[in-house]
Every structure is written in structure tokens, then in C-alpha cells.
Amino acid sequence: MQFEFGTAGRVIFGAGTISRAGEIAAQFGKRALVVTGRNQKRAEPLLNGLRTQGIAALTFSVFGEPETETIEQGVKLARQHRAELIISMGGGSAIDAGKSIAAMLTNPGELMDYLEVIGGGKTLANPSAPFIAIPTTAGTGSEATRNAVLSSARHHVKVSLRSAFMLPRAAIIDPALTHELPPEITASTGLDALTQVIEPFVCVRANPMTDALCLEGMERAARSLRRAFANGSDAAAREDMSVASLFGGLGLANAGLGAVHGFAGPIGGMFAAPHGAICAALLPYVIEANIAAAKKDRSHTETLERYDRVAKALTSNPSAGAEEAVGWTRSLIEDLRIPPLRTYGIRKTDLTEISEKAAKASSMKANPIQLSTEDLTGVLERAL
């Protein structure tokens, strides 16, 4: 057995840890570009901490999921500000934007030179500028991953900028920052987190370290996602979901994902649909398709055994079998009022194109079993 495990240089976890952001940032420089989401006011605790440390901060807001043009604008702004470090405070979009800006700040050429699928796919030659990630949602786990997902409006697809150099120097995870998330965002981001502890556990590159993290993440999300949805100020539930999100990021960065995310990239590029909501709508049906395909192929007994363990972790029932994971996740998306894919304008006539693009997606390569075109289309039909 061989595997590699990498993560942020430091992980600082716990309620109130945002108060340490200024002192941590001061280790990397005195001029910072602060990347936020739409609401810059949420970054005030961070900005106050930076001022206390004498750090000159310029803010850059990311509206929605980052596009390639967004990154180019951010890099230009960072250079004008003579930024020595990049800090992202927000959801996965803000963190992915910050990672990308930090990477392109120190590497020659254009962003398109380095993008997968639609670009040159070149390897980043130089370490990124120092980057600090501070998530305000519990979903993407982007604070612990080595890639950033970007949209290309011209190509109607989402692709990754990827390098071990993109791992944050520090990740500050303060669950208290998630307490004000509305139920709808709690649901979609939380189901993204759940997907990202299930897919690395069953994928072809799973390893003992990611297994341990993913099982723990599944148990925490299973007991707490409904509670966080019902009561955003439930501190214990919010903490569990922040742990699950972090562990999902660690899992996907060091093992991989699967068909849910294989679909999510093309759908997100073609339609105005939130990433977490796409993953949520697809999750039960991908699990169902993987189990059905594994049952037809006797060489995939380990896949079925892993789905048995998923079912046990989700249901807290030591005798649960793989199929119970399907029923449990279907019940969860109903309870959390996750809309079907047709809500975002997806129609049956789109399914062939989505399936063809999904089959080529990098995440699909780690799916535990190769799904046929018929399997892929069937997943989409059931999620529609």
C-alpha cells in the first residue's frame, strides 16, 4: 500500500478562533488582499484583527461562483496593492477565488495556461503567495484542498486549477461564523459536505487515513445536519458540520471524489445552479447506481462492503446494508427540501450532453465503478 497525505500548513479549529486571524496573518506580510463573498460586512472581525496588527488590507468581493475573469481581476488588484498575502473569508467560492489569485500572483503566464480540460493544463512552477482560508459555510472543505473550481462562461463548464502549492498556509475554521447561515444554504452546503465524506470513502483511491476521517465525518453530519437546518444557533450541530466539511476537504484532496461531482462540474457550467444543491439532488441516485452496478460485477465486493459501512454510519444501525444508504439520503433531501434538478432549467433533452461531459470529468475517474452511459442518464432522470 502507498498513499500520500497533504493538507494546510496549519489547521486552527474552534469557536472564536477568528480572533487569531490577525496574529497568524502577520507572520506572512503587512499587505493583504482580502477576498470575501457578496457581503463584505461579514469580514469585519477579520479586518479589525488585521488593523490591530498593522496590516494594510484591500477587499475584493466575489459575487457567486468564481469565473476565470474574476481571478484575472483579483490578480490585477493584488499586484496594484502590492499584496504579500491573500486571505479568503467566505464560502467555497471566495476560498477558491483566493487560492487561484494566490497561485497566479507568483506564476508566469495566463490563468488559461494552467487550467484543466479547457486550458493548457501546465503545472504551476512556483509556490503560491501565502494564503489563509477562513470558511463561513460548512460544505466545500476548500480550506483543506489543493485545487480551486472555476467557471468558464465561454466554455459552459467548470474546471479546476490544481497544485499542491495551492494548499493554504493556514486554515482557520470557526464554527460560530456559520450560525447565521439561512436554512436553505445550510442544507445545500451541508449535503455537499456529506457527499464529500461519502465519495472519498468509496472511491478507488481511498486510503486508511481518509477512511478514518470520512467515517467520522459521516457520523457527525448524519446526527447534526437536520439539527443545524432546524436551528442555526445549535452550536454543537454547527461544530459537527464544520468538522464534517473539513474532513470532506481532507478526504477529497487525498483520495478523490466520484460520480456526484463528475456530474456537478458540467451541470454547474451549463446552468445557474448552486454546487451544493446539485450534489444534494444527485447523491441518493448515484449511490443507488453504484450499488446496482457493483452487484452485477463480482469483482466489486469491496465496493458493496464500503457502502454497507456508509449505511451503518448514516443510520447508526450496525446491521444496516448498502441499500439503506439510498433510502436514508433520499429521506434527508426531502426533509431538507432540496429541489430536483429541473428547478434549474435542466430538461430531458439536456441529459445526453450532461452525461457525455460527466463521463470525461476528472472526478468521475475515481468513482468506485465505471458507470455506463445508460447508468449516467438514469441517474439524471431520477434526479430530474
At a glance:
The protein has 384 residues and is an alpha/beta fold.
Map the helices and strands.
Elements lengths: L10 E3 L7 H5 L5 E6 L7 H9 L3 E6 L6 H14 L3 E6 L1 H14 L25 E5 L11 E6 L4 E6 L7 E4 L9 H20 L5 H23 L4 H20 L4 H12 L4 H21 L5 H15 L7 H13 L15 H10 L12 H11 L1
Question: Can you put this structure into words, describing what you see?
Answer:
The chain has 384 residues and is an alpha/beta fold. The protein folds into two domains: 11-177, 3-Layer(aba) Sandwich (Rossmann fold); 182-383, Dehydroquinate synthase-like, alpha domain. The chain is built from 13 helices and eight strands. The chain has helices spanning 21-25, 44-52, 68-81, 92-105, 183-202, 208-230, 235-254, 259-270, 275-295, 301-315, 323-335, 351-360, 373-383; strands spanning 11-13, 31-36, 56-61, 85-90, 131-135, 147-152, 157-162, 170-173. The strands form two sheets. A six-stranded parallel beta sheet has the order 1-8-5-4-2-3, with helices on both faces. Strands 6-7 form a two-stranded antiparallel ribbon. Helix 3 packs across helix 4, helix 9 runs antiparallel to helix 11 (323-335) and helix 12 (351-360) packs across helix 13. The longest helix has 23 residues, at 208-230. The model has no long low-confidence stretch (mean pLDDT 95).
Number of domains: 2
CATH class of the largest domain: Mainly Alpha
* Poorly predicted segments: none
In the CATH classification, which architecture of the largest domain applies?
Answer: Up-down Bundle
Spatially, the strands of the biggest sheet line up as 1-8-5-4-2-3
Structural class: alpha/beta
Radius of gyration: 20 Å
Q: Proportion of β residues?
A: 5-15%
Query: In DSSP terms, counting alpha (H) and pi (I) runs of 4 or more, how many helices?
Result: 13
Q: What level of helicity do the residues show?
A: 40-55%
CATH superfamily of the largest domain: Dehydroquinate synthase-like - alpha domain
Return the average pLDDT rounded to an integer.
Answer: 95
Shape: globular
CATH fold-level name of the largest domain:
Dehydroquinate synthase-like, alpha domain
Number of strands: 8
